[in-house]
Every structure is written in structure tokens, then in C-alpha cells.
Amino acid sequence: MTATDQEIKYHENVVSNDQGKTDLVMVSYFRKDLTQKTLERLIEVTKTPHRLTVVDNGSDDKTKDYLMNMVRFGHIQNLIILDRNYGLEYARNTALRHIHSKYCVFFDNDLLAPRLEPDWLSQQIVLMEKYPEYGCLALRPQVLVGAVEHLEEANEDVIPNNHVGATFMMFPTVLLKEVGWSEDFTNRVADWRLGDILKEKSLKMGWCRNIRCYHIFGKNWSYPEGVEHFHREIWPPAENYDNIKVDPDTLIPLS
After folding, report:
1. Is this prediction's pTM over 0.85?
2. Largest CB tally within 10 Å, which of 128, 131, 180, 200?
3. pLDDT category, 16, cuts 50, 70, 90?
């Protein structure tokens, strides 16, 4: 039996392109507390019409119960539960089969969306429309990893990057469906591989210079003992995040 056969689709409300909703996609795996922080902040600050899809990679730590409640309250429009962890990229490709809008935004369950007026999503869409040469634009986290230019050399809107940033990364949906996520690679390595594919198509990648989000990093990943995940010592550079404290509401560095 394939992984696809094991998908349990709890709710799906297909939204057509003409309704103007952007697809937001999150993959969850354990870390119920961080998942809750991420989703409740997202719902609070995102005013632009959108459709939220969540794919859970076989969590068994009350994450699924929480997500089901979010469906009941109408906050999640499409919830897909996988019977076990098939990997981040497989889960993202699963979500791709259920989204239909002009743009899609992929994010992990350890990110806080920014408080902005107009909201972050409308501003990100404006930049995607303004810069069609970009295949991916991500929100700017408190620490930039992999920037190809110094910040002062970037233009007023976009900071170029040499891979797809993992923080609320927006793509044209048709483009992402064409290239997909590289399931032969794992975690952040796949983000770099996707960046290589976009560069082969003469497309750029970058961060939205003035739309800042908060990436929740720390020494405690909140994974139960025995649950495998990528090594922080390899990627991302742990010291970069652990040594910089930022107020997640204002995104101002703390002294």
C-alpha cells in the first residue's frame, strides 16, 4: 500500500482561482505547542482572503487533536493526516495536489507571521506581481542565511538569495506544481535543490526586505526522544539563532 493510500483527508473545500484566495500550506510533525503558536498567530494577523491547508506527518503527541479542532472552528480548510512521517518534501507535494490558486505560500510550524497593515500576505502578493523574474519570495527572518548580497546592496524591496528561503516562501502555484519538491533530498537540502531548479529556469529567489517574520529557534526543538530530525549543528548554524534575541511582536533585537 502506498503512502498516498494512507492519506486521510478530513476536510477539503476547493477554491477556484477566480475567488482570489491564496493557498497557505503548513506541514506539521510533533511540536504541538509550536504548531499552535504558529497557526493562531497566522489566523490573527492574516486578513487577505486565503485558504489554509495543513498536512500532518504522522504526529502522535496531540497535534492531530488540535488540528481537528481548528477544522471544526473553520480555521483550517483542508487537513490531511498521513499515517506516518514520509518526510517534509513528500508532505509538501501531497499538499500541492490540493491547491489551486495563483500563488501559494509554504511554511513550517515554527514561524510567526508579522503584524502589519496592510497585512503581510497582501504585501507579499504585491511584490510577487512587481517582480515576475522571481520564482520565490520569502519573508525576511530575524537572521538571514545564504544571502548572496550584503543588505545595503539589495534594492528597496527584495534581498537576493541563492536558495528558496524557508520562511513563508511564496511561489506561483503553476510553477511549483511543475517543478515539485525534491523528495530525494531531505529538509533544508531540498530547499537548495529547488533553488538550483529555479535558477536553471533563469528565475531569481529572495527575501522581502521589509516584511519581517520570526523564526522560532532555540536549543530545545521539542521533539520527543527517539524522533529523528535534521542536525541543528549542520543546518542552520545554531549559534546564529541562539545568540540573537528578537521580540517576536516588534521584531526588534533585544539587548
Report:
1. no
2. 128
3. very low
Structural domain spans, the chain:
4-242
Task: Quickly list H helices, 114-250.
Answer: 120-130, 173-179, 188-200, 238-242
SS3 of 67, please? helix
Q: What is the 3-state secondary structure (H, E, C) of the chain?
A: CCCHHHCEEEECCCCCHHHCCEEEEEEECCCHHHHHHHHHHHHHHCCCCEEEEEEECCCCCCHHHHHHHHHHCCCCCEEEECCCCCCHHHHHHHHHCCCCCCEEEEEECCEECCCCCCCHHHHHHHHHHHCCCEEEEEEECCCCCCECCCHHHCCCCEEEECCCCCCCEEEEHHHHHHHCCCCCCCCHHHHHHHHHHHHHCCCEEEEEEEEECEECCCCCCCCCCCCCCCCCCCCCCHHHHHCCCECCCCCCECC
Q: Reply yes or no on domain 4-242 having CATH 3.30.420.130.
A: no
C-alpha span between 123 and 203 (Å, rounded): 20
Within the chain, residue ranges assigned H as helices are 32-45, 63-72, 88-96, 120-130, 173-179, 188-200, 238-242
Instruction: Please tell me whether residue 120 adopts helix, strand or coil conformation.
Output: helix
Q: What is the rounded distance in angstroms from the CA atom of residue 91 to the CA atom of residue 82?
A: 8
pLDDT in tens, 162-208: 788 889 999 999 999 999 887 765 555 667 788 889 999 999 999 99
Inter-residue contact 76 to 54 (CB < 8 Å):
yes
**CA–CA separation, 58 and 35 (whole Å):** 14
